[in-house]
Amino acid sequence: MPVSLRFRCQYCDAHPDPLTQISLVTAMRQMTFGEYQDALPGRWLIFHARGPFGPTRYACPAHRGDLVAYLREHYGAVGPQVWRRPPYPSSLAHSDMDHTWNVATTRRTGGP
Ligand SMILES: [Zn+2]
Question: Comparing C-alpha atoms, which of 27, 72, 39, 69 is closest to residue 53?
Fold first, then answer.
């Protein structure tokens, strides 16, 4: 039985439309930390958290402001990332490429 990722707004029962769902799945695969991202075309907001920021969070267009306010209230002291103002990038492909580049070019040390 195929498992599909189901995204849900953290404040309501909204589910993304199919195209926005694709954006969310793509975004989830990116190795990003402490970044806001717009998931288009539905204008969902992602906060790539991890580490001290807790889990990655998602909000529908109606609750973007609530998510930002929540993050600032709870994680405002953790890092300056949560204070970033829109517009947020709709793609973090650049940092994703940087990560791929680092993985591809980092040589393991401690060999013979
Ligand atoms: Zn919502």
Answer: 72
Residue 105 confidence (pLDDT): 64
SS (H, E, C) 32-46: CCCEEEEECCCCEEE
The rounded percent of the chain whose pLDDT value lies above 90 is 61
Spatial separation of the C-alpha atoms in residues 95 and 93, rounded to whole Å: 6
The pTM for the full model equals 0.78
Ligand 1 centroid, distance to 53 Cα (angstroms): 20
Separation of CA 63 and ligand 1 centre (Å): 5
| pLDDT range class, residue 30, cuts 50, 70, 90 | confident
Sign of the four-CA dihedral 100, 52, 9, 87: negative
Ligand 1 centroid from CA 65, angstroms? 10
